[in-house]
Write a structure and sequence with these properties.
CATH superfamily of the largest domain: Glycogen Phosphorylase B
Radius of gyration: 23 Å
Mean pLDDT: 95
CATH class of the largest domain: Alpha Beta
Number of strands: 18
Number of helices: 20
Strand order of the largest sheet: 3-4-5-2-1-6-7-11-12
Helix content: 25-40%
CATH architecture of the largest domain: 3-Layer(aba) Sandwich
Strand content: 15-25%
CATH topology of the largest domain: Rossmann fold
Distance between the termini: 12 Å
Shape: globular
Structural class: alpha/beta
Length: 469
């Protein structure tokens, strides 16, 4: 099969979150199964110059954006055995950053149209187009309205993947005529609760809808998680399914990771103790064998930071140390800074995101804490296990699908059900009990490092879905 994977970002070219990791890893795993999956993303000016220099010019054409005609250049590159197409328009994509501009709707209307139009100009006809999140949600809409019956576009199927339903591409209804450019008699495809909703359009028009974990596919049918789209998803759940995301085991490998103080493996974990010792030393924390909690996250409410705030002193009293990396809302940044000031030998906080420090935390911590209110999939818990760091998570979304509590069979972490600070504290108390039994903890770490969260399984599920439609 030929699959075109349309995304607003992809590793190694440009990344702002987990979508880029998926777009950089899943296509390679699909190709390893004997198919031809290619990726198309915008050519942002923020892409590093050495990567831009590796691209070759293919062609150019015009894209209609309402009454305007906009230039689109096509460039081609290869990474990890995957062909990437990057669509160029400096007016829309030569900016500092990827999102958050006043004209984001127009920028991704252009990109969605360009994704379909450029198929005319390359020697690759997809059997399936897999679009992702609101930025590419108009591709199946435009395909159904304008392209379905055009020569060269027959029988293309559309799959739409929801990575985070909170961000839907919601705008005023005036965009239908001014920017989106679809006939008024088709406006019902996009209109939802008094707005234009790009994601709703994809839910209406795609042949299949996927999410990034089986549990998240069920959760978004309810108002608590659905952010207003639960009603339309309930109507369309016959075409909804969830596949758990994976991680690239070559990128996240404690045996070869150059960012670590020492490398190690499941059969020889001596290097992990060195990683812990050096991490504490570099961050100015007191040496010792007490358990270290690692946190690498955005400081926003749905990541469960409020739970940590509520029982922080109780966690310190259990003997834990904290190594924290992240940024976000000022109220949380200020709280963690205060805790570092109050417990200077027990708490380290680094504001921002430093990829090398993140790797050092994954390797040097004993426990990785993710008490999320909601988590569509989450990759950090999988990376933590790969590095032998035991996750403590709330049972939601992909966290529920990837982490099994040690109280049952084949446990690989500690979980709690309700969004409650003392339930989280209970999991930390149980983890401390395990940690103090060194043989038991060692077996748990070894089991976690042997877990397989590679893309191989997920790729087979996506291939099965593509074949089915």
């Amino acid at each position: 099969m030929n699959i075109l994977y349309a995304s607003s970002e992809a590793v190694p070219f440009i990344a702002s979150g987990g979508l880029a990791d998926v777009a950089g890893s899943l296509p390679a795993a699909i190709n390893a199964e004997g198919h031809d999956c290619r990726v198309v993303i915008p050519l942002y000016s923020a892409i590093k110059q050495e990567l831009r220099d590796s691209l070759k010019y293919v062609t150019e054409f015009s894209v209609d954006v309402a009454w305007r005609k906009q230039y689109c250049g096509v460039f081609e590159g290869t990474a990890n055995g995957v062909t990437y197409y990057l669509l160029d328009n400096e007016y829309y994509f030569s900016r500092q950053g990827l999102y958050g501009f006043y004209d984001d709707a127009e920028r991704f209307v252009f990109f969605s149209k360009a994704v379909l139009e450029f198929i005319n100009y390359i020697s690759f006809k997809p059997d399936v187009i897999n679009t992702n999140d609101w930025q590419t949600a108009l591709v199946p809409v435009y395909y159904n309205i304008y392209y379905k019956y055009r020569p060269g576009y027959e029988d293309i199927k559309n799959v739409f993947t929801i990575h985070n339903i909170q961000y839907q591409g919601k705008y005023g209804t005036e965009l239908i005529g001014e920017i989106v450019d679809i006939p008024l008699y088709h406006s019902n495809i996009l209109e939802y609760e008094g707005c234009v909703n790009f994601m709703k359009g994809a839910i209406e028009c795609a042949d299949k809808i996927t999410t990034v974990s089986p549990s998240y596919a069920k959760e978004i049918l309810y108002s608590w998680y659905g952010h207003g789209l639960d009603k339309i998803l309930s109507e369309k759940q016959y075409k909804l399914c969830g596949f758990l995301n994976g991680i690239d085991n070559n990128i996240y490998n404690p045996e070869t990771d150059k960012a670590l103080y020492a490398n190690y493996s499941v059969d020889n974990k001596a290097g992990k103790a060195i990683c812990k010792e050096k991490l504490l030393e570099d961050l100015g924390l007191a040496p010792g064998k007490e358990p270290v909690i690692g946190i690498v996250t955005r400081f926003v409410s749905h990541k469960g930071i409020d739970l940590i705030k509520y029982v922080f002193k109780d966690i310190i009293d259990l003997g834990y140390k904290f190594v924290i990396l992240g940024s976000g809302e000022a109220i949380y940044e200020n709280f963690f800074k205060e805790m570092m000031y109050r417990y200077p030998e027990r708490v380290s906080v680094t504001i921002g995101f430093e990829p090398e420090l993140a790797r050092k935390i994954y390797a040097g911590a004993d426990i990785f804490l993710m008490p999320s209110e909601s988590e569509p999939c989450g990759l950090a818990q999988m990376v933590a296990l790969r590095y032998g760091t035991i996750p403590i998570v709330r049972e939601t979304g992909g966290l529920k699908d990837s982490i099994v509590d040690c109280g049952g069979k084949n446990g690989n972490g500690f979980t709690f059900k309700t969004y409650n600070a003392h339930d989280m504290l209970g999991a930390l108390i149980r983890a401390r009990g395990y940690y103090d039994k060194r043989m038991l903890w060692g077996k748990l770490v070894s089991h976690g490092m042997r877990e397989d969260f590679s893309w191989n399984n997920s790729a087979k599920l996506y291939i099965g879905l593509y074949s089915n439609i």
